[in-house]
Amino acid sequence: MSRIQRKVCNLHAPRWQKGLAATEFALVFTALFFAIYGIASLGSVLYVQQVVSRAAEDGARAALLLSQDISNNDARVQSAIYQSLASSSITPSAAGSTIASKFDWLKTNMAGNPPTVNITSPLQIAVKVSYPYGENPIVPPLPFTGILTPATLQGKATGAKSLP
């Protein structure tokens, strides 16, 4: 390549690259945004799953601490479960900021599928909690990604009383 041809190529090089940085930024930003948003969405699902599992464990613990007069779907055990859920930050901001308002919101929104307490034998207790995560996600899904969000999250716990 002669000197003149090199000079001509160098003069046109900036014009050829005009807008290239903006295009690269748009592509990289989009990929990073989706990656970070996906991590945040997955993290929120895992957090709510952990809260629901802990609530089931708290319900089983409450059932074991109650006297022998406990029955299936005992309201006191369900109250302990709702209290455990209300003490976390899984409820939407519209539910209020106090534990009492979160408690009421949870009882209302989980009325269709309340926590269940089953006494399988005099010494065995099983607790199951289902939370409607699809209706109340912490991080709202992006368009066309809602099918990846679970509709409900479930927690199960069992407990056994020891013989006196």
What do you see in this structure?
The chain is of the alpha+beta class. It has helices at residues 3-16, 20-65, 75-86, 99-109; strands at 116-121, 124-131, 153-160. The protein is 51% helix and 13% strand. The protein has a three-stranded antiparallel sheet with strand order 1-2-3, with helices on one face. The longest helix has 46 residues, at 20-65. It is elongated, with a radius of gyration of 27 Å. The model has no long low-confidence stretch (mean pLDDT 84).
Walk me through the topology.
Elements: H1 3-16, H2 20-65, H3 75-86, H4 99-109, E1 116-121, E2 124-131, E3 153-160
Antiparallel strand pairs: 1-2, 2-3
Helix pairs in contact: 2-3, 3-4
Essential attributes:
elongated, 4 helices, three-stranded antiparallel sheet, 3 strands, 51% helix, single chain, alpha+beta, 164 residues
Indicate the radius of gyration in whole angstroms: 27 Å
N-to-C terminal Cα separation, in Å? 97 Å
Helical content (DSSP H or I, runs of 4+): 40-55%
Order of helical and strand elements? HHHHEEE
What order do the strands of the largest sheet run in, or round the barrel if closed? Answer: 1-2-3
Strand content: 5-15%
Annotation field: number of helices? 4
Summarize the biggest pleated sheet: 3 strands, antiparallel
The unreliable regions are: none
What is the overall shape? elongated
Count of individual beta strands: 3
> Whole-number average pLDDT?
84
Category by helix and strand content: alpha+beta
